[in-house]
Write a structure and sequence with these properties.
With 457 residues, the chain is of the alpha+beta class. The protein has helices at residues 30-35, 37-48, 67-76, 85-94, 105-113, 119-139, 148-165, 173-190, 195-198, 204-230, 236-242, 255-284, 288-304, 317-329, 361-364, 384-389, 408-423, and strands at residues 51-56, 59-64, 81-83, 145-147, 336-340, 344-346, 349-351, 356-359, 426-430, 437-440, 444-447, 451-456. It has a single domain, classed as Cytochrome P450 (Cytochrome p450), CATH 1.10.630.10.
Length: 457
């Protein structure tokens, strides 16, 4: 957990206490937040405005609902904040990877990993993305019913395994997926107040968490050993192993540092895109006119290009608009948290040192001030003109500032190409008699999956 220090700069005399619900119970709003965090934050923004104060157990917290205030935290005054409790606790699994580390380590590690995400390298990954999509598509059958969330997870896992680690994970996919699901489920317990004490107890949940973490460690360290023996394979893991930081005398990463970065990229790189794609197919299945326009564009590009490639992405603007709108309504990362390490203020309201500040993509990206008729699935919102008119942080699925997701360009390329590669052959029909619910854990998963009926085009 990051150490919170008292600020040397007091709050201005004009700053005031933010509004918020009364906390009559010892746990504050913890029960309501844990029961349904998406609805809780939506109600909090509606009832108390763009800076709302509440408590999660002993933790004082604030929800920010205005893009300008989110920019203040993520960009303008980012030195006043560190990662919030969720990612501090995520170090139990991810160690000191890019997602969890703080400066100066974060700055160094990002500098070493950045070359793997250059545009030219991503273009080389595109062929693998399309090949993996073709392979999973070949296994599907007309009128087959399947869980599209699981299928997208298997697909993106295979892509990350091959592009970043030159490793075929398909044989281990079910076991890895089960371990990840266990991690997601148990992570909720780690977020409880006083969970540092709970995890010391001999509870079955703690044992399952350790077993899942050991499964990932075994996989990553095995790949590190294989790469050390075989030398440079031209993938991300090879780059991490050979990277040298000229600003620190040419020092490289230890195996433990490589493990932390590799595991972070492996989990974050497939989980978020898989969820984005699953929600995209869910929305398309309910909007025939959008689906028809998407298929028209994909068919037109497919007739021109013998094979989809990185160059095809620029020819698929409507497909990108569909993905953008899906991630507006169902953002894979549904909330960002920061911990104030200085007394500061946002929007004229006092944010005392030690406070947790939450910024929810789910709340802001469904705000009618920026997105009229916000619950409507409308890809046409994302014309170039409409994008220009939006405040900078009205849409922030990849975060912002110095800690903006390093894999954003990879994710956009992957998402657009996979929608096109699968959409050229298939239509996904929503299976009846199922209730689709959101499951806000580390990412926004569809609870119990999404059953779809395949229809060959």
């Amino acid at each position: 957990m990051a150490t919170v220090k008292e600020s040397a700069s007091p709050l201005s005399a004009s700053s005031v206490r933010a509004p918020g619900p009364a906390s009559w119970l010892p746990g504050g709003q913890l029960f309501h937040f844990r029961r349904d965090p998406l609805q809780f934050m939506t109600n909090l923004r509606r009832d108390y405005g763009d800076v709302a104060r509440f408590r999660i157990g002993p933790q004082g917290a604030f929800l920010l609902g205005h893009p300008d205030y989110i920019r203040d935290v993520l960009v303008t005054n980012q030195e006043s904040f560190v990662k919030g409790r969720a990612l501090q606790r995520a170090k139990r699994l991810l160690g000191e990877g890019l997602l969890t580390s703080e400066n100066p380590l974060h700055r160094r590690q990002r500098r070493l990993a950045q070359p793997a995400f250059h545009r030219q390298r991503i273009a080389a990954y595109a062929d693998v993305m399309v090949a993996c999509a073709d392979r999973i598509s070949a296994r599907w059958q007309d009128e087959q019913t399947l869980d599209i969330a699981r299928e997208m997870s298997l697909l993106t896992m295979a892509i990350i395994g091959k592009t970043f680690f030159d490793h075929d994970v398909e044989a281990e996919a079910d076991e890895i997926g089960a371990a990840l699901t266990e991690i997601m489920r148990l992570f909720q317990m780690l977020m409880l107040p006083y969970s540092e004490l709970l995890e010391r107890l001999p509870l079955p949940a703690n044992r399952r968490f350790r077993q899942a973490r050991e499964r990932f460690d075994e996989l990553i360290y095995r790949m590190i050993r294989e790469h050390r023996r075989s030398g440079d394979r031209g993938d991300l893991l090879s780059m991490l192993l050979s990277a040298q930081d000229e600003e620190t005398g040419g020092a490289g990463m230890s195996d433990e540092q490589v493990r932390d970065e590799a595991l972070t990229i492996f989990l974050a790189g497939h989980e978020t895109t898989a969820n984005a794609l699953a929600w995209t197919w869910y929305l398309l299945a309910q909007h025939a006119e959008v689906e028809a326009k998407l298929h028209d564009e994909v068919d037109r590009v497919w007739k021109t290009d013998a094979q989809l490639s990185a160059a095809s992405v620029s020819q698929l603007p409507y497909t990108e608009m569909v993905l953008t709108e899906a991630m507006r309504l169902y953002p894979p990362a549904w909330v960002l948290g920061r911990l104030a390490v200085k007394d500061t203020e946002v929007g004229g309201y006092a944010i005392p040192v030690g406070s947790l500040v939450l910024m929810s993509q789910w709340v802001v990206q469904r705000d009618e001030r920026y997105f009229p008729d916000p619950l409507r699935f409308l890809p046409e919102r994302w014309t170039a003109e409409a994008r220009t008119a939006l405040p900078q942080f009205a849409y922030f699925p990849f975060g912002g500032g110095a800690r903006r997701c390093i894999g954003e360009n990879f994710a956009w390329t992957e998402g657009v190409l996979l929608i096109a590669a699968l959409g050229k052959d298939w239509r996904f029909k929503f299976a009846q008699n199922q209730k689709i619910e959101t499951q806000p854990r580390i990412t926004l998963r569809p609870k119990n999956g999404i059953q779809m009926i395949l229809e060959r085009r």
